[in-house]
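so the lab meeting is tmrw and i was supposed to have these ready like two days ago... anyway. pasting both below. for each one the top line is the aa sequence and the line under it is the structure tokens. i havent really looked at them closely yet so no promises
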Amino acid sequence: KLVWGSDWPHTQHESLITYEDAIHAFKQIVVDGKEQSLILNQNPTELFGFSRT
């Protein structure tokens, strides 16, 4: 399983790439909406034991 990660909010490269640019690049790489949801939502929810309520 894969989860999305970034260095936000502790970035030091804002002059090179923004969070919006990074998530846009992610969505260009992972084009399937179901896979995006797994990586951004379901997988981290399961990994970290977050509640779905």
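ok protien two:
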Amino acid sequence: MSEPVVRRARSAEAKQAREQAILDSARALGHRHGVRDITLTDIAADIGMHKSALLRYFETREQIFLRLTAEGWREWSAGTRAQFPDARAATPHTVAQVLARTLVERPLFCDLLAQAPLNLERNVSIESARTFKLAVLHEVHLVAAELRRLLGLDEQQAIDTIAMATSMAGALWQMANPSPHLRALYESDPALAHALVDLEPQLVRVLTAYLTGLAVGDARNGRPEAGQEAFR
């Protein structure tokens, strides 16, 4: 059976629709198979497009997934801010629960959080990297403002909290989702059972301990803006 022929988009609307189709395909494939294993060829085949044609819309596979990572930050930021408790009910534990829950609810975002610094940011143009970083920083400041309001954190503490939550979610998600062969090994050997991470409870424990420590001790030292370096 011959491969379907997709005509080149001519209008701005058609180009935007084609880009969205590519992003939708990458998102679906990433959900099913994991971001690391998806290639440009996979995405092109999924939407019936030649790889060379796909490259008219995105420079690399990394640019596609970096766009999805920025989208994930926007969705997580909005979802998290909507679920934060009332200021009167805010405690380190209740805030940690929201941060952990909203991350775990977004498995593709957790996967992308790990992949972004490892490889996605390393194979795109400077302009693409700049656009991504600015988009992330905007969402970080929105969430940080809520953390400051709810827990009285300073700006550095709030941004550091977000950096810890998202970086741990990315790393722990990889551990919580091993390959089928590794999962079978861990489940068959009690000595390796610890390798199967229960993501949400572990995130809640660590973030609660961190936020409680900030509330108990005076962690306000160093440069006021130093916490932003994690997102530069």
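from a quick look at the 2nd one: Residues 6 and 190 are 52 Å apart (CA to CA). The two ends are 48 Å apart (CA to CA). will dig more after coffe
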